[in-house]
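Lecture notes, structural biology module. Today: joint structure prediction for complexes of two components.
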Amino acid sequence: MRILIVEDEKGIANFLKEGLEEEYFAVDVAYDGTSGLEMALTNEYDLLLVDWMLPGISGIEVVRQVRKEKPRVPIIFLTARDTVQDIVFGLEVGANDYIRKPFEFEELLARIRVQLRTKEGETSVLTLGDLELNLNTHQAFRNGEEVNLTPREFALLEFLIRNKGKVCTRTRIIEHVWDIHFDSDTSIIDVYINALRKKLNAGEKKNLIHTVRGIGYIAREDS
Amino acid sequence: MNLSFRNRIALYFLVTTAGLVALFYIVIYWEVSRTVFAQLDSDLSKEADEILQNIIVSDSNINFADLDEWKEKEHIQIEVNPTFIQIVDPLGMILHKTQNLFDRELTFFPEKKLRLYTNAQLANGLVRQVQAPIVNQQKKILGYVLVAVPLDEANLVLNNLFKVLFLSYPIILLILFLTTRFIAGESIRPINEIIATAERITRQNLEERIKLPARRDELYRLVTTINNLLDRVQEAILREKQFTADASHELRTPIAAVKGTLEILIRRPRTVEHYQEKIQYCLSELNRMSNLIEQLLLLARYEGGEFEPQVRVVDPAAHIEDVIKRMEKIFCEKSVKIEFRNNMSLRVVADPVLLEIIFMNVLSNAIKYSPPQTSVKIELQKKEDTVVCYIRDQGIGIPPEKIRHVFERFYRVDESRSSREAGFGLGLAIVKKLADLQHFDVTINSVESKGTTVIIKMPLLETNAEN
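The predicted structure, tokenised, for the full assembly:
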């Protein structure tokens, strides 16, 4: 899952990026409204974290503009303001949720998960056949047995299962699982897919990740 | 009494007019009755004269001339507008009376006046009568002539007049009261509108203004005054809101950053370098926060209005030198030269602590915005009854449209500059506050990319007063 942080305070942006990356998100950061808006409009993000007070374009304006082009992407506001009007205004402009500074990182994480969940109407456990992914604990189970995955592998698997039954192109996979600093060599995906298949299929289990030649991959139960 | 304004106006007006109308009525009544009686009296007097002419007076006897003619006259005049005549001797014994008196008698008053006009009782009715003495050549009173006419007619007129006046009085007052009340109500209607609007205006809804009346009268001025007041209140509240928003942003942001950084740090084991880096970051952030809190407390302490500066006679040059000594290290670090030349001994009235805070804030701004290898010049001048201190830097300057904002709290000339560099935007607000407390005048001149001059005018203590 790829997240864009628009926040001018480097201290806050830094820990958010670090913490979220450790939670297996791909994270991009913009330090002002103008570049934040540009990035939000050109790249595919699963969620935006936007600060209210930004140099250049304000956070409100960023949300307003993004909403025009992308009505569905979840947006969470970070704000140091706390009057009801401010919050109501932020939500009316188009944010899905808000969190007041200073906040607990765990709470922010929970709110991010709620937004990602409601986006597709899921719970925090994703399943595909006998494969189970717990998004809160980042554990994967195959037939009840835990499979150890690296953060990137987990993120890749999560993306594929969220889109189960649909073909995921290499470009989309790169966009949602790796962050902006990754050069667009998509062959890295194959390496991760192979590793994933090896771990998941250990012990002669049915393959769940299928190659769609020349396009990308698809996760589905039947072969 | 808790009467509404218009009722009160109407009541005051009513009381005044009630008095005036009553007075007016009394005058009318009195004038009419005076005229009526004067007319009667003059008729009676004429009649009495006529009779006296017809009386022939000898030494001690009264004789009537032309008695026959008299009788005739009486006969003609009978009952239409009867005139009663009666002649008595000095003791009141009746010598003669006209027939229309029948068995009644006119009342005799034993007084020697030349003409005595009175109201008197005659049987069941009132009469107006005149009593005139009959005198002989030796001025001896031989008797009296009494002439009277009934008062019925005059009384009727006066009674009618009284009734009209008496009945019209309350009606007129009632009409006046209602009219005044209506007029007063109409003329204060704009005031009611003002009240209604003013009641609608609250902290949350400060946009609304009272509609100006069409005519440029006192109410127009009242409304303008209230609207201006509202402008100022709104401005103050906006400033306060802005201050609260800025302060909470400035305080919460570093807290959020430190808190978040530590939370992430503690989630899993890290390398020593990682710990060191993060802890270093948190410490610097905490230092910043503590600076901000100090500045806010400083402002708060002097803001309350209870603070009295401890003014003394001080030499500003000495305090400037002190401040320079303390800041020397920072100047060196940035390679900014500081020049202060002074050979005058000046005396100003100031609080030395506040004075130093002012110079410290102005100087640290000067350093902050000065490029390396430039200098900051401080100069003291005596001008009339003030000591003027010029602090000139060769820094980046302030755009002209922003100069008027620099004394506002949390105002930063360049918003996009990283907040780490620029401080909090409280320094000059503090300078301004402390200067105001000591009746200093602070102004700023600036040319972009040339430099900024801060001018502080301090009241000079007269040297002769000192000697």
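Point to remember: Chain B touches chain A through 22 residues (CB under 8 Å).
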